[in-house]
Amino acid sequence: MRSYDLSPLYRATVGFDRMADLLDRVLTQDSTASTYPPYNIEKTQDGAYRISIAVAGFAEDELSVEQREQELIVAARKAAEAGDRTYLHRGIATRAFEKRFQLADHVRVTGATHENGMLHVDLLREVPEALKPRQIAITTGASKVIEAQTA
Asked: What is the DSSP code string of 31-72?
């Protein structure tokens, strides 16, 4: 595995710490990361997204969805099984997991639903009014000069 030193990036830029951290995380991420459980990410509308995770075998109370700053954390812990079961074949994996998703700026979790073995997490991107583009009116004629008044 290659190792990249991003320290020159940190000392040569101001205000890009989050970008450098993201690059560092991607470059140092284990390439053999777990693909369990499988999931989909879809765009449902303009600025709205849904993450669907296959959680067969887990009940609602065994699942946890949490948003911490710009990170979505989905975890599952299976409660201890009661009774003596003997499986001839066990193909449904119910091992504990924790999935982390990095969220873009101004993305928030609006809800989560659990149905038919799928956990759906809905996300919405809300751009603040101050960051939205605004139209500037163009006027004709003499320009007005605003004079400073002395107090």
From this structure: TT---PSPEEEEEEETTEEEEEEE-TT--GGGEEEEEETTEE
| The predicted structure's pLDDT at residue 140 | 86
- List phi, psi (to 5°) of 125: -95, 120
Q: Mean pLDDT of all residues in the chain?
A: 83
pLDDT digits (tens, 9 = 90+) for 110-141: 999 999 999 999 999 998 888 888 888 888 87
Q: Indicate if the alpha-carbon torsion angle 86, 91, 92, 96 is positive or negative.
A: positive
Q: CA 21 to CA 41: how far, in whole Å?
A: 23
DSSP H or E segment with residue 10? helix 7-12
Q: Is residue 139 part of a domain?
A: no
| 83 lies in the same domain as 125 | yes
Mean pLDDT of 80-89: 79
48 and 87: one domain?
yes
| Structural domain contains residue 134 | no
Q: Domains in the chain: how many in total?
A: 2
- Enclosing domain of residue 56: 34-129
- Is residue 108 within 8 A of residue 68, CB to CB? The reply is no
Judge whether residue 49 has pLDDT over 80: yes
Instruction: Tell me the two tokens of residue 53.
Output: 């995770």
